[in-house]
Amino acid sequence: MPAKYFERTAGKRPTLADVAGSAAVSMPTVSKVLNGHSDVAVETRARVKAAIEELGYVRRGTRGPLAQRSIEVMADQLTTPYAMEVLRGVTDAAETADADIVISRFHRAAPDTGWLAPGDWARRLSSAGRTGAIILTAELSPEHVSGLSQEHLPVVVIDPLDLTNPDVPSVGSTNFTGGMSATEHLLGLGHRRIAALGGRPQSVAATARVHGFRAALASANVPVDEELVEFTGFDYDSGFAVADRWFRSGLRPTAIFAASDTQAMGVLAAARRHGLDVPRDLSVVGYDDTYLAAWSTPPLTAVRQPLWEMGRVALDSVLALAAGQEPVSRHIELATELVVRGSTSPPADSPPADSTPAEQ
User: Fold this and answer.
1) What domains, with CATH codes, occur in the chain?
2) How far is CA 198 from the centre of its chain?
3) Where are the annotated coiled coils located (predicted)?
4) What pLDDT is attached to residue 270?
5) Cβ-Cβ contacts under 8 Å for 282 (sequence gap 6 or more)
């Protein structure tokens, strides 16, 4: 972690980061000593204990051995099928680990001062006695990371918007492969005029899916029509608006790859408004494979993102960090899978391809 995050401020109580700096060890090593782990060398343990005594470090939120661990899950959109499936994985894993889950918004408003500043955000989590936090689809600023290090709060981000901060562990999926497999499926059906709806342009996941789309077209020597590639929101209204505009302007593709299931629902609605039959006139592939995909009309072909598993891995990871364990990898990617249903077929003006993935 950058050295500036270990700087002490005069008059402030010493932090775990201060202890780690004084003892010339990592913060997980200090945590292991505080938690009584045996896998710390005798000399290192003595050095850490000496630093604790010299600095007068007092652990925040110190609780008895029977105290319940609590993880705060923070997201700004909790009502989407995507978020609900991730939360299902988090809560299932929490039950197994005998931990409590608290749900809140990442961009949390303070009662009197507006949005919580990054430092206040971290202190609120610490004063509440949280064991750690899971952030769903958000970007942690350097100020957030600094505050977390000062409070010694482990955090794991699911589907982070930004992977440039190596100090924050994250969990995601193989988005490039997902975008590529969706496009290869459409190419295999005979489609050549394929559109791509990305998610928010600042989203690493959305960008990777569109890169996979482009790679599949390049591999098949099919040119990309840049008028049919657009980044927008992951929501229903955004999917509807872009598809409706394409259809109105005469830029009608024979297939659309959408960056989420909810976005794909908007595409299906726009197709109905313009009298287009899916899949006869337009094939549609979604992303996530939430319950919306199986319930839509027609059932939606979608890239299955292992959302439940991502939630479980995030919960297990934050508990491991809280116990002083070093993560094997700072970014974990779980495999995606294409699930073929009734929203895709060969284009009306092309013969079917020799083979396509088996329907599920």
Assistant:
1) 13-55 (1.10.260.40), 69-173+308-328 (3.40.50.2300), 175-305 (3.40.50.2300)
2) 15
3) none
4) 96
5) 252, 253, 254, 255, 256, 271, 276
